[in-house]
Amino acid sequence: MHADIVFTGGTIRTGVADAPVHDALAVVGGRISALGAAALAACGPLTTVVDLAGGALLPAFGDSHVHPVMGGLGLHGVPVRDRGSAEDIVEAVRRWAEEHPDAEWISGDGFDPWLAPDGRFDARWLDAAVPDRPVVLRTMDHHTAWVNSEALRRVGYTADTPDPVGGEILRRDGSTEPLGTLREFGALSPVLALVPAASREAQVAALREAAAGFAAAGVTWVQDAWVEPQHADVWITAATTRPGLPVRADLAFILEPDGWRERIARFAADRDRVESAAPGLLTARSVKFFADGVIESGTAALLEPYTDCPHSHGIANWSPQELAEAVTAVDALGFRPHIHAIGDGGVRTALDVIETAARTNGPRDRRPVIAHAQLIHPADLPRFAELGVVASLQPLWAQWDSLMTELTLPRIGPERGGRQYQIAALLASGARVAFGSDWPVTAYEPLRGIATAVTRQTPDGTPEGGWLPEERIDIETALTAYSAGCAHQAFEEKEWGVLRPGMRADLVHLAADPVETAPATLTGLPVLGTWLAGRRTHEAGASGHVPAGRR
């Protein structure tokens, strides 16, 4: 049988450990049919021949934890990302407000939380630019918001308002008056609920814009790690109407403590509706939980108190007993728990509740996910492998950047600071690792994360030799975490993630072989093409690229 497509003229890396490289690959009916000489022999008069031009063909990338709708919508608010100071952000807000006089609310996402001392942003700074309309800006991690006085007034936060459950309203020094900085969803959600929701059409367009960017980065599968009820229909519409989507996705329904028993009642029906609407493209087999917050805002749950705040262990978003009940309940429905856990206290709680669910519901192949796992107590590290937990890690975070030096390390001190983002240690323990971006928190391009995982350096090469160099990994391992690691998380390791006959032709064409490329230059390695089951979804120069974030 003649092939539909034959790739030749470069290096074919299969993604299989210790496997030889090949010089050709053939595709028939969206699946790989042959490698090497057999692939070349499959050329026929109607075969499309793709010249790799000396580059490399590899398994396409996945993203184990990302927020496509949220990120796509965030591209169109106030452009606060990558601003160099709080003053720059205020000026951006001023300009945007002048250009959009009819906008009821003014919002933006992605500013750096270290741009104010101790991450304390003042409402009065924004009042100077926009005093008469509410302004809400979220930090890059989305766990903190900076609001103006009008937004505080609209939500009803006053000097007499107590901190809500699962959140913190920062106060002015020496008083109980709200400062203008809100931490964690207990404090953020009441404000965000007042912001007019984007229309269905706008959400679909945002998703498509984000998905085009993923394809341009070589990504063909994503884990949407925060799906509100309306987002399922956004995904269905984008997937089933022209031009469709260039990526597959698994949807993780968000479950929060308030009223969780009532909400899970609809999850099974929503799962069936999603999967019947777009079979082979969409699944909805995960449920998202937040065990804690983030270290930078002092809300990640720690086993020992914060160094700079000895009375605080952070914020646990659930009580351990309630989280165990909820995780056990969704596990019994056949869903995979996907738990955000940053601090070592949050990670321990996540491991404990996963263990409880397995003990209660009996043995099966679960592949529960703990996302981020920034700080793990040494006693808990082997439990990932023991419990079959997939560690969804964001390698781009593992660097000595301003977030680390200005906020993270002062809050946890040198001992805990020296055991962050233990990628190599988790892999050595036998744990399954899948890489992701958490975009729009940070850039979604896998090559950027791979470069950081291999070097543990910032883009300018700091520090020499890498930060916590014992946690560096080699390039092949990093590539695997972004491909086969994600396929394992998706329960689709028999379908994609490596290149062998019978597998889906989910492929990425890079301008050079990444294994033979200097690690520091991987970030700039062009992605020349991406294929989803043999269908080209990206061709260099033929599609736009969504602007990336940074950490």
From TrEMBL:
Identify the domain of life: Bacteria
Q: Does the keyword Cell membrane apply?
A: no
One Pfam family linked to the record? Amidohydro_3
Keywords of this protein's UniProt record, alphabetized? Answer: Hydrolase
Matching Gene3D superfamilies, A to Z? Answer: 3.10.310.70, Metal-dependent hydrolases, Urease, subunit C, domain 1
Enzyme superclass (EC): hydrolase
Q: What is this protein called?
A: Amidohydrolase
Organism for this UniProt entry? Streptomyces sp. R39
